[in-house]
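[job 0412] stage=fold_complex status=start
inputs:
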Amino acid sequence: MIETDILIIGAGPTGLFTVFEAGLLKMKCHLIDALPQAGGQCSEIYPKKPIYDIPAYPEILAGDLTEKLLEQCKQFEPGFTLGERAETIDKQTDGSFVVTTNKGTQHKAPVVAIAGGLGSFEPRKPQLDNIEFYEDKGVAYIIKDPEVYRRKKVVISGGGDSALDWSIFLSKVASEVTLIHRRNEFRGALDSVDKVQELKNAGKINMITPAEVTALIGEHQLEAIEVTKSGESPVRIETDHFIPLFGLSPKLGPIADWGLEIEKNAIKVNNALDYQTNIPGIFAIGDVNTYPGKLKLILCGFHEATLMCQAAYQIINPGKRYVLKYTTVSGIDGFDGTRKEAPKAVVKSIN
Amino acid sequence: MDQDVQIKITDRDGKLHEIAAPVDMALNLMEVVRLYELAPEGTIGICGGMAMCASCQCYVLTEHPLREMQDDEEAMLSEAFNVKPNSRLGCQIQITPEMEGLEIELAPED
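[job 0412] stage=fold_complex status=done
writing structure:
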């Protein structure tokens, strides 16, 4: 069981900044995120896009913002459970919460801060009859263990980086790789596109474009797919695996069943005070919450995180008085033993 | 001076809305849908309008001259579901005076 002071669900900008603000108040944080890396939307959807409304940054790339937030909170040694989705929450008799992920990892904390953005990113599934029946019976949306595909026939569909990268990788592992895309053009890093072209020319990747997978075939498990080129009749291709890679889309997911008040796909909070939800001890900050006048902006998430930490402090240290300190005056003492402080003024007499 | 154009939008439940879209606020079609709350929050404009998701996909039902499709929109639509020849991403279509009488239908949520 992982134990911490504030359990943060969502490792996007708001969640990461919470670590820093909590650290100033001597509270430890642990973050859970469904994605395999920190940064949330900033690293998953638009890492190379500029943001212009982060105070003091006239322009910063979303990926760089993530890097800087990680750097800023590093000395407070946050823990991470990445690639796992927070699934259930259970209130304990001592008032704390236990949050369990889809992989069974358990986390215990007196305060839970949901900084989940638009929800956890789930793979987008193509709309094919019976596709759910074939999941784990030949159909997978995420490649967890490439060894599964060794000496097997694999069909990949999609036109982005992951479709290209996995086609390249699996061409060395699988007995046969077929890449199917609705257009002839691919949206990916130039060298990946070139590499796929090279492998296609060498006969290592079968490419079918512009085409779409239109049916899945197999009695107990996937045996073949049907692919249709535009304007032509469907063709059957024998395969052991079908991997549709159409990107990820966020879903509020299991959090919606935690007994929290939900409005417009977001969690209602008390914005007059501390962004607490209808369940005391559970807060919602950043894009995932809603209140009158709510703006889904990163800078608003930072503010919400800061106020939320004050309320968390009172829960974790009941009755303890607190006085606001400025980092410029008192410096920062990291949990890793480091100390940052303003250089002392030099005093020297003039004779 | 009238700063609105009249647009007909059929929502995902098939309900027709006749709305006035302002041309002087640099809005795009996705933002107009959100402005009038014609699709639930969190189901449209997920990427914020960068043509990086297809949550604002719509079908254009009239022959209005619209901004030509750029590479990023075309690429995104090629990975979207429920795509038809008249599919566009609402976030890539700025509201202009030429759009008076435009009719669109929101694509299903995928």
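[job 0412] summary: The helical segments of chain A are 13-24, 41-44, 62-73, 131-134, 161-170, 190-201, 298-316, 327-330.
[job 0412] exit 0
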